[in-house]
């Protein structure tokens, strides 16, 4: 009897030990599998989460916004530390889908980095002729700048998945020999700032300034409403607006950009003073309306031809005191325009700009609203021009008929007028 009891106890103990071993083995297996899954999370996320409503479908939700000082993800010794440590910078860049250039090729294309064409906040920019015959701009980031390294990662990740005709295209990068290099499509007419302030360029016409404003607005509208998740640029200024060979404008420099989905509370204020939203400065919270404020400053810069660091907004506030019913803004018009602008059109653009810089963010228009207003302004311009042209043609025809003793008004006038309206609708 005692032997039977001992046997039963021994079997019971053995079963319990076996169960405990099995449970331990299961936990170990799941733990190691979890580590493996977390280490590969960036590549899986890139394949499953779309970044844009239109265009390329390769993406990742991770960018500099998740590893910078504003990040909600920290590297503390908790459950998330394993995830953070498994996410290497190399995987951030490789997940972007942007081609990687060798340092040697870029060195050759820039004649050993001697073809300097400009200098940005975080590095020098060179013109490069690639072996394929393509002309590109090569931006070499400052090696001792931590902010420059963060800018590099952000630009590669964001521009690897954001594509729009009014955003500067990133065509490649290089991360060799301790260097961080970005390769862009070459914008032959340089920055908007150079055309507004440099004596080397002729003054931009008023007509062209409004088209440039619409191009920038469309680029920002895409970032705010076309990108998924939305992107806040955070550094809109005339130096970051580049012009191509046909003077079409594109938004550039995404080093400070953030996805709207991350913590909007900035640890440090980033951007360019003069363009910064007062609400952002006081609360350190950035939103889409922060970009709208900066765009409003840019509009006034286009109108007045004055740098924000040289008292532009003070000039605007003084002018606002004497305006009534959105009339009177022509007094701040750039002297280089030499009075060659449509007064009504300038007042409409200035009134829009003033709404954009309202100190209360919720009272500012959205970028979509701004695009609609600028489009309507340009459409009205288009219709006016054609009606003026039509009126001139009609007057000439009537004069010819009077010489022949008759006054005839062509029956095609109204049809032509309607066709112009239709053409304007199709263009805009």
Automatic annotation (TrEMBL):
Gene3D superfamilies, A to Z: Phosphorylase Kinase, domain 1 (3.30.200.20), Transferase(Phosphotransferase) domain 1 (1.10.510.10)
Binding sites annotated in the UniProt record for ATP: 139
One MF term in the entry's GO annotations: protein serine/threonine kinase activity
TM annotation in the entry: 6-29
UniProt keyword annotations, A-Z: ATP-binding, Kinase, Membrane, Nucleotide-binding, Receptor, Serine/threonine-protein kinase, Transferase, Transmembrane, Transmembrane helix
Transcription regulation keyword on record: no
Top-level taxon: Eukaryota
SMART domains per record: S_TKc
CDD domains: STKc_IRAK
Residues in Protein kinase domain copies: 111-378
Pfam families (UniProt xref): PK_Tyr_Ser-Thr
PANTHER family xref list: CALCIUM_CALMODULIN-REGULATED RECEPTOR-LIKE KINASE 1 ISOFORM X1, OS01G0750732 PROTEIN
Family label: Belongs to the protein kinase superfamily.
Protein's name according to its UniProt entry: Calcium/calmodulin-regulated receptor-like kinase 1
Species: Hibiscus trionum (Flower of an hour)
Lineage of the species this protein comes from: Eukaryota, Viridiplantae, Streptophyta, Embryophyta, Tracheophyta
């Amino acid at each position: 009897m005692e032997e039977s009891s001992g046997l039963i106890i021994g079997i019971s103990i053995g079963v319990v030990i076996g169960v405990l071993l099995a449970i331990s083995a299961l936990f170990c297996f799941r733990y190691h599998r979890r580590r493996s899954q977390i280490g590969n999370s960036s590549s899986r996320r890139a394949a499953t989460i779309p970044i844009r409503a239109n265009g390329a479908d390769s993406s990742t939700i991770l960018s500099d916004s998740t590893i910078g000082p504003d990040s909600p993800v920290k590297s503390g010794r908790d459950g998330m530390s394993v995830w953070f440590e498994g996410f290497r910078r190399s995987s951030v860049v490789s997940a972007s889908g942007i081609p990687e250039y060798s340092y040697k090729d870029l060195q050759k294309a820039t004649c050993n980095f001697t073809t300097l064409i400009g200098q940005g906040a975080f590095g020098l920019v060179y013109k490069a002729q690639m072996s394929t015959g393509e002309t590109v701009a090569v931006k070499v980031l400052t090696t001792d700048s931590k902010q420059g390294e963060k800018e590099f990662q952000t630009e590669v990740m964001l521009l690897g998945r954001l594509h729009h005709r009014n955003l500067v295209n990133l065509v490649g990068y290089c991360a060799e020999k301790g260097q961080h290099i970005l390769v862009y499509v070459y914008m032959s007419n340089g920055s908007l700032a150079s055309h507004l302030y440099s004596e080397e360029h002729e003054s931009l016409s008023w007509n062209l300034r409004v088209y440039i404003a619409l191009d920038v607005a469309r680029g920002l509208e895409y970032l705010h409403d076309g990108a998924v998740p939305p992107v806040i640029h955070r550094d809109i200024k005339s130096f970051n607006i580049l012009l191509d060979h046909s003077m079409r404008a594109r938004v550039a420099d995404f080093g400070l950009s953030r996805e709207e989905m991350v913590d909007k509370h900035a640890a440090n204020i980033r951007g360019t003073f003069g363009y910064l939203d007062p609400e952002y400065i006081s609360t350190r919270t950035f939103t889409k309306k922060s970009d709208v404020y900066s765009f409003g400053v840019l509009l006034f810069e286009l109108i007045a031809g004055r740098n924000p660091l040289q008292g532009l907004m003070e000039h605007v506030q003084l002018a606002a005191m004497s305006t009534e019913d959105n009339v009177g803004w022509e007094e701040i018009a750039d002297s280089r325009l030499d009075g060659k602008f449509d007064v009504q059109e300038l007042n409409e653009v200035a009134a829009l700009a003033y709404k954009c810089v309202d100190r209360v963010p919720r009272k500012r228009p959205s970028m979509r609203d701004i695009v609609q207003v600028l489009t309507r302004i340009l459409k009205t311009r288009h219709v006016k021009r054609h009606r003026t042209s039509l009126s001139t043609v009609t007057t000439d025809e009537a004069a010819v008929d009077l010489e022949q003793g008759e006054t005839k008004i062509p029956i095609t006038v109204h049809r032509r007028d309607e066709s112009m309206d239709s053409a304007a609708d199709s263009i805009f």
